[in-house]
Amino acid sequence: MCAQAQHRFGIMPQINTDFKIGQLLKVNTKLENRFILYQNPIQTNASRSEYERTDIELIVSANKGRLKNAGVGYLIRRSDNDGSFLHRSIQQYSFGQQISNLQLAHRLRTDQTFEKQEAVQYRVRYRLSLEKPLSGLKVDPKEYYMKFNTEVMGILKEQKTNMELRLLSALGYNHSDEDQLEIGFDYRAEDLIGSNTENLLWLTVGWYHSF
């Protein structure tokens, strides 16, 4: 039997918040849901459209000193397939740079995923983000901006390797220094090594709030 590529389209709403603990630590939290609107072929015991999962992620990073922007975190995911939970430990380092009116952000992340009756999965990820104001040299309150992300990922599980590619294009509105709203498309190509590649396209709607 020949393997068939999986294609999915859906909506992925997010709520992101960040706040500081004193002068030394910064905390970022994210609540993300995924709802599939269309998929082909349809998986066993699934429907063409369905709720897929909920992620809760927390990252604590240094806000000053030699370890500034280095962080550790934890993610828990509930899957609608069987109601099971996935746990993930996270380590990352990020930094930004300004080039003319472009804001670049780099993030290097490693993580380890733990599931019941599954081998541990290890991943190495690099993400490059670009943010550009639609007017002026910087994004001021009540102004729009564009954001582009590209991320490559290496995966190791049970001594088998794989790769994943992610691309994001979004329009953002900077309501204030504390609140931003973004809407765009997130494309993901999973399991690139082999014949079972999954193509996923998500309409993303994100709200970002700083306390």
Protein model, in words:
By secondary structure, the chain is mostly beta strands. It has a single domain, classed as Porin (Beta Barrel), CATH 2.40.160. It has strands at 6-21, 25-40, 50-62, 70-79, 85-99, 102-114, 121-133, 143-157, 160-174, 179-190, 198-210. An eleven-stranded mixed barrel has the order 1-2-3-4-5-6-7-8-9-10-11. Strand 3 and strand 4 form a beta hairpin. The relative contact order is 0.17. The model has no long low-confidence stretch (mean pLDDT 93).
Give a short overview.
The chain is mainly β. The chain contains no helices and 11 strands.
Keywords:
mainly beta; Porin; single chain; 211 residues; 11 strands; eleven-stranded mixed β-barrel
**In this structure, how is the largest beta sheet organized?**
11 strands, mixed, barrel
| Total strands | 11
Which architecture name does CATH use?
Answer: Beta Barrel
CATH domain topology? Porin
**Structural class determined from secondary elements:** mainly beta
Which residues form runs of ≥5 with pLDDT under 50?
A: none
Q: Strands across the major sheet, in which order? A: 1-2-3-4-5-6-7-8-9-10-11
- Gyration radius, to the nearest Å? 18 Å
